[in-house]
Amino acid sequence: MNYFTQALAWIADPENLHGDGGLLARSWEQIWYTLLAVLVASVIAIPLGYLVGHTGRGRGLVVATSGAARALPTLGVVTLVGLIFGIGLFAPMVALVLLAVPSVLAGAYAGVEAIDPRTKDAARSMGMSEWQVLTKVEIPLGLPLLIGGLRSATLQVVATATLAAYVGAGGLGRFLFLGLKTQDYPQMLAAALLVMVIALILEGAYELAERQAAQRLRTH
Amino acid sequence: MIRFEDVSKSYPDGTEAVRGFTLEAPTGCTTVLVGSSGCGKTTLLRMVNRMVDPTSGIVWIDDENVAEVPPVPLRRRIGYVMQNAGLLPHRLVIDNIATVPLLNGVPKAEAHRRASELMELVGLEPRMGKRYPDQLSGGQQQRVGVARGLAADPNILLMDEPFGAVDPLVRADLQAELLRIQRELHKTILFVTHDIAEALALGDQIVILAKGARIAQTGTPQEVVAEPADSFVADFLGLGRGSLDLHLRETPTGTLVLDAHGRPAGRLVGESRTDATA
C-alpha cells in the first residue's frame, strides 16, 4: 500500500476517528480556531477598513502596516509569543489574527473605495449623514469585496492553524507534529488531507455567500 | 427664491471656479444656468444645498442664509436630480424614490404611497417600482431620479444636467414631461446644462455663463435670442453658425424652416402656416 491509501485507512480507523484526541474532535478544533481567529481579526480590521475607506485617510499607513504584517513569519510569531505568554491557544491565536487582519482590512476598505463616487455623492446630496452614507450605501455595496477578504483570510488561517499544536494547543496539527516525530507519514498525510477537506468546505460556503451578496446587491 | 450674493469659490491650488457671482432665481420659476463645461455652473448649483461652501459671499434661500443651516436637514428639503440619476443600485426603484421621506422618518407605508403617486406623475408604470435601477432604461432611470428629487415635496429642485446622458429623443420626452410637471407644481427650479437648446426649451430665465461663472447675459429665452448681449453670447447660441439663424421656404407640401446652410430644421405649423397658405 502506498502512503495515500494508508492515510485513508488511517482516517477510516474508528480508533483514530473518535474520542477526545480523535480526528473528529481535532477537526472541530481546527475549524473553531479558524473561525475564532477570523472573528477577532474582523473585529479589529472591519471598523478600521471602513474608517479608511470612508474617509480616504490613512490608506498609505494601513497598506504599509498590513503589508508588513503579511511578511511576518507565522511560526516565528507563534514561538515568540509562546515564549512570552507560555504554551496554549493564546500564542497561535495572536499569530493567526495577525495573518488574517491584512486580507480582511483590504476587503473592507477596497469594498468601500470601489463604489461609484457618484452614488456616494447622490446619497450625500439627498441629505444622508456621513453615518447613513456608511451604513446604508457603503457597507451594503462593499459587502461582496468584504466577503472576498474574509474568504482569503479564512483560507490562509485554516491551513496555518495547524501550527497551534506546535505550542501545545489542539487542532489537526497534533497529528502532523506527532507523525513527524514518529515518522508516521500516513498519519501526517491523513491530517493534511483533512485540512484540505475543511478548506474546501469553507471555500464552498464563501462562494455561496459571495453569490448571494452579489445577487441581492445587484453588483454582479 | 434663491439669491446668490457676490459669491466666490476658489480652491487651495489657486483655481477660481466662481468669481463675484450675483443672481436671483425667482420663486416658482425655472432658472437655467447654461455654459460650457468648467464654467462653474455645477459649483454654483451645489452651493445651494451646501455640497460646496463658497469661499466668500452668501447664498440665500428666501431670507435664510444657507451657511447657517446644517447641511443634512438643508439637503433633505431641497430636491436634487443629477446626471445618470445617481440611484442606489441595491435598492428597489420604489425605495429609491422614497429615500428622503424615509430619512425624514415618514412611516414606510406612507412613504411608499407617496412614491407611487410620484411614479405616476413622472410617467412610470407602477410595476417598475419593484425593479432594480439596472433593470430600467436610461430614460426611465432619469424619471426615477426626478421622482426622487420631488419625493419630500421640496420647494426647490436642483437639476444638474439631468438629461445629459440619454439619447435626443428620450431627452425631448423628458424635457416635455418636466415642463408639464412644472406647470402643475410650480417649484423653484435651478437647472444646469451645457445644451443651449435645452436651456431655451425649459428656462423662464436663462443665465449664460462664461468662464469663472461670469454672467454673459441674463434674460428670457426670447430676450437672449433676439438681443444677444455680445459676440460671446451670439456665438454660444449658435447665431451666425447657422443653427439658430432660420428662414422659411415654401414647398408644395407646406412651409419648411431651414437653417443658415439650407438644411431643414423643421416645418412651419399652426397660425403662420395658415397665413402662408391663405
What does this 3D model show about the protein?
The complex is a heterodimer of chains A (220) and B (278). By secondary structure, chain A is mostly helical. Chain A has helices at 3-12, 14-17, 23-55, 59-71, 74-85, 90-113, 117-125, 130-160, 173-182, 185-217. Chain A has one domain (3-217): MetI-like (MetI-like fold), CATH 1.10.3720. In chain A, helix 3 packs parallel to helix 10. Chain A is elongated, with a radius of gyration of 21 Å. Chain B is 35% helix and 27% strand. In chain B, the strands form 3 sheets. Chain B has a 6-stranded mixed beta sheet with strand order 6-7-8-3-9-10, sandwiched between helices. Chain B starts with a strand and ends with a helix. The model of chain B is unreliable at 273-278 (pLDDT under 50). The A-B interface holds A 118-119, 121-129, 132, 136-137, 140-141, 216-219 and B 46, 49, 51, 72-77, 80, 82, 84-90, 99-100, 103, 132-134, 148.
What is the name of the CATH architecture of the largest domain in chain B? 3-Layer(aba) Sandwich
Shape of chain A: elongated
Annotation, overall tally of beta strands of chain B: 13
- The pLDDT mean of chain A sits at 89
Number of strands of chain A: 0
How large is the share of residues in beta strands of chain A? under 5%
Radius of gyration of chain A: 21 Å
| Radius of gyration from the alpha-carbon trace of chain B, in angstroms | 21 Å
Shape of chain B: globular
Based on secondary structure, the structural category of chain A is: mainly alpha
**How would you classify the quaternary structure?**
heterodimer
CATH names the topology of the largest domain in chain B as Rossmann fold
